[in-house]
Amino acid sequence: MWGGRFSARPSDIMQAINASIGFDQKLAEEDITGSKAHATMLAKQGIITDADRDAILGGLDAILAEINAGQFPFSEELEDIHLNVEARLKDRIGEAGGRLHTGRSRNDQVATDFRLWTRKSLDLFDTLLTDLMAALLDQADEHAATIMPGFTHLQSAQPVTFGHHMLAYLEMFARDRGRMRDCRVRMNESPLGAAALAGTPYPIDRDMTAEALGFDRPMANSLDAVSARDFALEALAAASICATHLSRLAEEMVIWTSAQFRFIALTDAFTTGSSIMPQKRNPDAAELVRAKVGRIMGSLTALMIVMKGLPLAYSKDMQEDKEPVFEAFESLELALRAMAGMVRDMTPNEARLAEAAGAAFSTATDLADWLVMTLNMPFRDAHHVTGRIVAMAESQDLTLSELDLGDMQGVEAGITQDIFSVLTPLASATSRTSYGGTSPIRVREQVARWRAALSK
Ligand code: ARG
After folding, report:
1. Ligand 1, CB within 6 Å, residue ranges
2. Which residue numbers delimit the Argininosuccinate lyase C-terminal domain (predicted)?
3. Nearest to 454 by CA among 207, 173, 214, 209
4. C-alpha to C-alpha distances, 60 to 51, 93, 298, 358, nearest whole angstrom
5. What is the whole-number distance in angstroms between the Cα of residue 422 and the centre of ligand 1?
6. Which member of 157, 198, 331, 420 has the greatest number of CB atoms within 10 A?
């Protein structure tokens, strides 16, 4: 491509470090779409003839068919997807192929291709996140009144409902989806026509190519257009945050499926056995979802470091932008699909959850609240009285509901039989009717809200 200036071939090692065709062939379709928009615009502006345009469009379609059929002769010598496609076009249609690159550079070309590819990925994540949210919503709907222990510090805290726990994750994934959408809005501007860095003297129409490629507008500064990769960083940041949410839910699944917890069961579809221990059922998919965050966040860090300190405009460093994004997005796609599958696959063990919800004095706060509401005791005093009753239960090896009324009255004379009505986990969770609380009626309210929102 630059044989005019150069007379010798690059060294093999130069070629090896320089070539990106090994990974940027993923951009083939976007590259051809971008080139077709550019050629169409060049003809409309009278920069190339209609006959050349037709030859170019036909040639590019044929090349895409070749690529899709796995018959394209990718060459490392031709460095990247852009030069591979352009060289092939010249082979196929001759001189007209040499006119495609008029008023364009690989710098605006690659920025355009990469934006189109990233945008397509964000749209896929939107769909996958919506599907995961729907899976969580179905579990929440079915288990709006299934009582389980709620934790702080992974110590039993207060009873909650399984549906409430599912909806907590639904909210997080909804924000992840929102971040992807926000990112898409900001990134949806076209770099095409910025050329190498300064723009071009040809009378190109950047609005036309922007529109043809589904961008909202052309980018306003040619230096920025070829230098910016914050769209990829932002997408990776959104992916990283999403991956942390997936990882937290995956971690809970790992804990919940253990013999010590037995809160949920996963079927054969999402577990594996052990080659030595016949009794084992391992939650490998959950563990791998938990682990994928490493690659995804690593990719964000990698690209941040590539980009920091680069002077304007294009530097070859920026060729290193693609692999982290490809790797992170492939991992996130798989993790989202696996998580939606596991959420649909899991069955909460209602009996075990109820038993665990009643353990560890989980309704002690309800006892204190009863003292406040019934005896008008200041909360701090009620906290102290309850602490003494818990210590008594602990020493007698009883749950709060199993305590003798007389023994409780020994600590606080005002306590009556009515106290027992607030000491069950079901009563506790049901009483938490404040907005956003765990009570089944609040959970059902939120289920209905999300049902309506997701069906839009
Ligand atoms: N393969 C290159 C990349 O991915 C394309 C742009 C090359 N531009 C250049 N001036 N060498 O960044």
Report:
1. 20, 24, 80, 82, 106-107, 110, 314, 316, 318-319
2. 361-428
3. 173
4. 14, 10, 36, 68
5. 68
6. 331
For ligand 1, pick from 79, 81, 104, 106 the residue to mutate: most ligand atoms within 8 Å of CB.
106
CA of 229 to the centre of ligand 1 (A): 13
Say if residue 184's pLDDT is above 90: yes
pLDDT reported for residue 336: 98
Beta bridge partners of 159: 149
Asked if 422 and 363 count as a contact pair (C-beta separation under 8 A), the reply is: yes
Please state whether beta strands 189-190 and 217-218 pair in parallel, antiparallel, or not at all (unpaired): parallel
Write the Ramachandran bin of 153: left for phi over 0, alpha for psi from -120 to 50, otherwise beta. left
| pLDDT over threshold 80, residue 1 | no
Q: Which residue is it, tokens 């990882």? A: 247
The structure's pTM equals 0.95
Give the pLDDT confidence score for residue 273 in this predicted structure: 86
Closest Cα to residue 422, out of 382, 354, 374? 374
pLDDT tens, 221-275? 999 999 999 999 999 999 999 999 999 999 999 999 999 999 999 999 999 888 8
Residue indicated by tokens 């899991």: 346
Say whether 38 is catalytic.
Answer: no
For ligand 1, atom 12, the nearest C-alpha belongs to 319
Contact status, residue 363 vs residue 156, Cβ threshold 8 Å: no
Query: Which residues have a Cβ under 8 Å from the Cβ of 292 and sit 6 or more positions away?
Result: 243, 246, 247, 331, 332, 334, 335
Distance CA 87, CA 58 (A): 15
Identify which of 15, 26, 78, 80 to mutate to test ligand 1's pocket (most ligand atoms within 8 A of the CB).
Answer: 80
